[in-house]
Specification:
This protein is mostly beta strands. It contains 3 helices and 16 strands.
Amino acid sequence: DYFHLNQNSVIENFGAAAAIDRDEVVLDLATQAELAKGTPVDQIDLGSGTPNYRGSTKVVRNPVTAADRAAFAAYNARQATNNSRRAPVGSVISVIDDYLNLSGRDIQGYEFGVQWRSPKTRFGNFSLSSEATHYVLRRSKADENSPILDELDRNGRASWRANASVSWRQGPLSAGWFTSYFGSFVDTSAATTEPIYRALGGPSYIKVFNDNGITRYLLRVDPSFNHNAWLSYRFDKNARKWLRGVTVRGGINNILDRAPQLGDEQYGYFSGSANPRGRQFTLDISRKF
């Protein structure tokens, strides 16, 4: 299945941290545009502290001070390329964390599904199923004056999600195994610089990432796998009267007791990308009349 969703006036709440991230990307894009024109980085005016501020409309900053210029000059002196340099801006006064209607959002992708059931054998019946979703595009535009920004592979919006299961049944006994997969992505609020990345020897947990045309060095959140298993027994009509139609099912969720992958979020992980609970044991008893 192929899907393409084009949404307008989407109600969204970025959150304060995401608003600051978006402000950073927009400022970097404006800086790169000025550098491409030949403007020296220390002479670029991003309108900090004025109505003409070129960053996010959700962030309010102070005017640039001499201390700000000195700090940015020291930072830029350590950068090897223009792509990493930044024009000076003032300190943040406030961040507006409200709901807004996005100007637009585009989402495209593919979904795949496979199911197979075996014929009856002396070893029982087997069934296999698997589903996967591959996103190829996810971008949004906050308002008419904002640039269109790519959101895919960032902050919990992985390109790939998948699951697979296998089950078996032999008479009243059945069992199954379920595995889910959530792909890798980068955390845009956990960033470093090229000199630090090089000094660390280019570790795999830092990803050199093209963020809307800006090369950034971001925390790589590893893929997550979650495994669940279950076993059940169904009493048939030959069982004692009070057991007829009763099914007892026991299960283990998060069998490997894996913690979510680390992320720069309030609770240390991206909700929705992994199971935040440890290994869990379940018992379910039901009766069919």
